[in-house]
């Protein structure tokens, strides 16, 4: 029997993250790639990549999934644990910073705020409606300016007199940024103004009425932007901790939850053969009652292996 590892998979609308962790909770391997509107293919490609990058003679002892595509992913890989993003990100943050009290998570198209007391989640908020407080907000402006996101962050740090950008809406922000450029403001000051606008939007929407105590952990893909990190530190008046593997924290949390749940039980993991299986997703509207639920179903090799979306048990697959 080989070394036991636990897989965590976080399937988001923009990116998919896969990690392998050992029994001590140490990251063995990780993958971060764009979902590109192809979650099934991306998950399978990720499994194939992971299989080729794991140490020899390892045994997958458990699998956890999270993210907006967690149910779909759970069916494909045979997950032992399927958990929401709040739980997964909180567990990962506690693993890295055991006394964490505030978790800021900003991804490509959504953002989360988690408040903890004594290691327990006591409050949280999510924003998945507007992109103004997410990574796509900065990415869109960086693309328009012809610079990389990394360059945006580095240049933002050079700012001495940041320009205030209207950040409540992506459309207004771009219009305001163009206006500031036409007025002759230095680009570095405009870029840091964008970082501050993102932070201001996040705090106004998600942190309204909440007290954010340190230690503060900042995770998600946007945590790689040093300009946003500095803007958070200035706005909160405290140090903001960015974990080493900040971009895959959801997947890390899922792997840790799988390790905790399995605890000697046999895993449901389908094996790496799942990376070559033929999965198809489809949906239909149930007309059995006025609820008109949209039922999502997954087929593997022509056999229906899972359904969800109904308010009753009519379409459940045993």
Number of strands: 13
Mean pLDDT over all positions: 89
Question: CATH class of the largest domain, anyone?
Answer: Alpha Beta
Q: Rounded to an integer, what's the Rg over CA atoms?
A: 21 Å
Q: In one word, what is the shape?
A: globular
Structural class: alpha/beta
**CATH architectural grouping of the largest domain:** 2-Layer Sandwich
Q: What is the spatial order of strands in the main beta sheet? A: 3-2-1-4-5
Query: Sheet bearing the most strands, described?
Result: 5 strands, mixed
- Any idea what the CATH superfamily of the largest domain is called? ATPase, nucleotide binding domain
* Fraction in beta strands: 25-35%
Number of domains: 3
How many separate helices?
A: 9
Task: Provide an overview of this structure.
- The protein has 318 residues and is of the alpha/beta class.
- The protein is built from nine helices and 13 strands.
- The chain has three domains: 114 residues, 2-Layer Sandwich (Nucleotidyltransferase, domain 5); 144 residues, Nucleotidyltransferase, domain 5 (2-Layer Sandwich); 30 residues, no CATH class.
- The mean pLDDT is 89.
- The chain is globular and about 60 Å long.
- 35% of the residues lie in helices and 26% in strands.
- The strands form three sheets. The protein has a five-stranded mixed β-sheet with strand order 3-2-1-4-5. The chain has a five-stranded mixed β-sheet with strand order 8-7-6-9-10, with helices on both faces. Strands 11-12-13 form a three-stranded antiparallel β-sheet, covered by helices on one side.
